[in-house]
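User: Can you recover a sequence for this backbone? Please restate the input before giving your answer.

Assistant: Of course. Working from this structure:
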């Protein structure tokens, strides 16, 4: 019984991780590189000057 329970537990964990990865719902924001942040800041500064 314990062996069967452990196997089911592992399979449920793998299924949960796969569903989370497939859904793409994360609380973590998308990574923006340092160069991209600098570019965005420069564009914002130009927009505020105008």
């Amino acid at each position: 019984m314990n062996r069967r329970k452990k196997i089911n537990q592992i399979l449920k964990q793998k299924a949960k991780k796969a569903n989370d990865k497939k859904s793409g719902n994360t609380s973590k924001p998308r990574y923006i590189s340092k160069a991209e942040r600098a570019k965005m800041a420069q564009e914002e500064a130009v927009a505020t000057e105008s």
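That completes the design. The helical segments are 2-23, 34-49.
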